[in-house]
């Protein structure tokens, strides 16, 4: 099967949008990713997938920790900035959580220590043991068929 058909099929799965962050020598680094999932409640583990040629791969290997920042519907430009889709120089806004840079105002900031990793094809899968979490109210930024979107959280009665 051809690569385009595979990519198109994978694009039919709607996802949230995250920015993965880590710090090297006190400097924050980030990349947009939608390959993220929860794995285990005990211990609390999540998984991210980083392409082998991504600069973030070496940074996470060096730092031994990362944060998953789940973006809100108002943070499409943040996603585009970390995806390299905005070429003009902009400084992203960070907060700090458990001594790591996290995206300011994200729906969730999830700080993890690398628990394990596995090379899988042209990606490395990082298991992260969750160390700290901050949650905020709001609606998520989504990605479907190569486009950004939003969904509205259901009203609880």
From TrEMBL:
Q: Which residues form the Flavin reductase like domain?
A: 10-150
**Could you say which residues form the signal peptide?**
none
* SMART domains listed in its UniProt record: Flavin_Reduct
- What keywords are annotated for this sequence in UniProt? Oxidoreductase
Among InterPro entries, the record links this protein to: Flavin_Rdtase-like_dom (IPR002563), NADH-dep_flavin_reductase (IPR050268), Split_barrel_FMN-bd (IPR012349)
| Pfam family of the protein (one) | Flavin_Reduct
Entry's PANTHER family?
A: FLAVIN REDUCTASE, FMN REDUCTASE (NADH) RUTF
Entry protein name = Flavin reductase family protein
**Source organism:** Lysinibacillus zambalensis
